[in-house]
């Protein structure tokens, strides 16, 4: 087995990776909202430490 050197990511690479992760999370949230609306479902979220059920109509 070869010796593999550990490579550190630069600050710029870390920022770019974080931006991609953030964009992916936002996309997943948007798709979930669209699915809940399409299926006239309900979304369960936590607000102010309390579990809240949101109907499709309550989503923005």
Task: Provide a short characterization of the protein structure.
By secondary structure, this protein is of the alpha+beta class. The protein has one helix at residues 11-38; strands at 42-47, 50-55. Helix content is 47%, strand content 20%.
Description of the structure:
With 60 residues, the chain is α+β, with helices and mostly antiparallel strands. It has one domain (11-58). Helices cover 47% and strands 20% of the residues. The chain starts with 10 loop residues before the first helix and ends in a 5-residue tail after the last strand. It contains one helix and two strands; from the N terminus they run H-E-E. It has one helix at 11-38; strands at residues 42-47, 50-55. The model has no long low-confidence stretch (mean pLDDT 89). It has a two-stranded antiparallel ribbon with strand order 1-2.
- Biggest sheet overview: 2 strands, antiparallel
This entry's quaternary arrangement is single chain
Q: Name the shape in a single word.
A: elongated
From N to C, what is the helix and strand string? HEE
**What is the domain total for the residues?**
1
Determine the mean pLDDT.
89
List the helices and strands and how they pair.
Elements: H1 11-38, E1 42-47, E2 50-55
Antiparallel strand pairs: 1-2
Index terms:
single chain; 60 residues; alpha+beta; elongated
